[in-house]
Design goal:
Blueprint (H helix, E strand, L loop, with lengths): L6 E10 L1 H17 L14 E9 L3 H12 L9 E11 L2 E8 L3 H14 L3 E2 L18 H8 L1 H5 L7 E8 H9 L5 E3 L1 E9 L5 E7 L5
Helix pairs in contact: 2-3
Length: 215
């Protein structure tokens, strides 16, 4: 067991401002009415934009924090204006994990690329549910989450980067209706950044370190 706990599943994420948080919470409340078995966005399910998911050596977490801080010291993400323009979801039939998608920008791509390079020395190829935050002894950690983190750089970075704020879980039937509705785009900005330990559905369950963001 000690060997399993030597790995932590991390999410280096931007924290969205109040504009996005309010929209995400409203969408989350709507999904919970339709699918009460989902999760609530709260202090242990933080609205966030994932920049990088990785399995890292737990003993190296302080080095991961320092590396991420060094990258952010060269950026001023709170001055960026991002545009939210649609809903989307990742299917896990008969349900889906939904989010509000932001348009990728040169700033976001540059930040992601720099974080990947900075954290790479501390990463390991894979982990087990023990690497994630769980109230249920890892029973709530989906197999697809392990695979997602494993392959994040290959499948969800670079040209495939899909910046988004996860809003909750719904049935595919309900989510398809939601996606068919007109979406009124809106502007928002990052308000901060943190490193989280991932939980079920890729949620930002436990804040490991608040990162320093230059205003």
């Amino acid at each position: 067991m000690a060997e399993e706990n030597a790995v932590t599943a991390v999410d280096i994420a931007l924290e969205p401002d109040a504009t996005m948080v309010q929209r995400a919470q409203a969408a989350n409340a709507r999904l919970l009415k339709s699918f009460p078995k989902g999760f609530t966005l709260d202090e242990t399910h933080h609205p966030h934009i994932s920049m990088l998911h990785q399995f890292v050596r737990t003993d190296d977490l302080d080095k991961v924090f320092s590396a991420a801080n060094a990258v952010l010291a060269k950026e001023r993400p709170t001055t960026w204006t991002l545009k939210a323009f649609k809903y989307y979801y990742i299917p896990a039939p008969p349900i889906g994990l939904a989010g509000i998608v932001a348009e990728p920008t040169e700033d976001l791509h540059r930040l992601q690329d720099a974080l990947i390079d900075a954290v790479e020395p501390y990463t390991v190829k894979t982990g087990t549910p023990a690497a994630c935050f769980s109230d249920e002894g890892g029973r709530d950690i989906q197999e697809f989450l392990i695979t997602y983190v494993e392959n994040f750089v290959r499948d969800a970075a670079g040209e495939r980067f899909n910046p988004h704020v996860t809003i909750g879980v719904g049935t595919e039937t309900y989510l398809n209706k939601m996606l068919a509705e007109p979406f009124l785009s809106f502007a928002f900005s990052p308000a901060g950044a943190s490193v989280y330990q991932l939980g079920a559905f890729g949620t930002a369950r436990k804040e490991l370190k608040a990162l320093t963001v230059t205003p």
